[in-house]
Structures are given as structure tokens and as C-alpha cells.
Amino acid sequence: MQLSELLNLEVVDPTKQRVGTVVDVRLVVDGDLDDSPSQPTLFGLVISPRTRSSYLGYERSDARRPAVLSALLRWHHRGTFLALWPDVERIDSESVTLRAGFNRYSPILRVDD
């Protein structure tokens, strides 16, 4: 399966209740990013209960301009969360099922100090 195939899949909890739609994926790249980075690994799925659209980069904590667009996208994506890859129980062509007891993490990407 290609990562792009995950986008726009419906996400359900173990009781088959809809929790949202996959709007993005999060990857991790370890190692020396300038010299010999590792292969990216899937960290988690960004799931929105209200929309199928992406954040357009406004999930970054420092993305605030233009202010009106930033505010609109943050409002539009309210309730969006990050589900970690270990919380994914099953994927098929129609949906993603999260495991019982999955956690909802903030989807905001923070700038490293």
C-alpha cells in the first residue's frame, strides 16, 4: 500500500463508530539528516472528524500568516488528532480501524528550539 492510499480513508473505532478521515500522515526520519538519513517510517495518521482537506501547512505551530487563513483552517480542523501507528489495528480499501484504547494526540507540529 502506498501512503497516498491512506488519505481520505474513513477512520472508525473498534465499535465501527466513525471518528474521522485521514487527512495526513506523519513520518519519522532518524540518523544524520545531512549525511545518511534512515528510511522514513510511519509515525502516525492525522485524523479529522470534520473535513477531508489538509491543513495546507498550518498545522505548524509557527504558521500564523495570513492570520485570517490561519484562523479559518484551525477552526475548520478543530477536533483533528494524531493517532500513532501502533494504535492502527486494521487497514482495508474502505477504512482504517483504530485499536481499543487508542489515544488522541495533538496534530500540531512544533518548532524545535
How are the SSEs placed, and which strands pair?
Elements: E1 10-12, E2 18-28, E3 31-32, E4 36-37, E5 41-48, H1 67-76, E6 81-84, E7 88-91, E8 95-98
Parallel strand pairs: 1-8
Antiparallel strand pairs: 1-2, 2-5, 3-4, 5-6, 7-8
Instruction: Tell me what portion of residues adopts beta-strand conformation.
Output: 25-35%
Q: Topology as H/E string?
A: EEEEEHEEE
Q: What is the name of the CATH class?
A: Mainly Beta
In CATH terms, the superfamily is PRC-barrel domain
Largest sheet geometry: 6 strands, mixed
What sort of overall outline do the alpha carbons produce when their principal axes are compared? globular
Mean pLDDT: 82
Number of helices: 1
Counting structural domains, the number is 1
Distance between the ends? 35 Å
Poorly predicted ranges (pLDDT <50, ≥5 residues)? none
Major β-sheet strand ordering? 6-5-2-1-8-7
Architecture per CATH nomenclature, i.e. the level-2 architecture: Roll
Q: Kindly state the percentage of residues in helix.
A: under 10%
How many beta-strand segments? 8
**Which fold does the CATH topology refer to?**
SH3 type barrels
Rg (CA only)? 15 Å
Q: Specify the structural class.
A: mainly beta
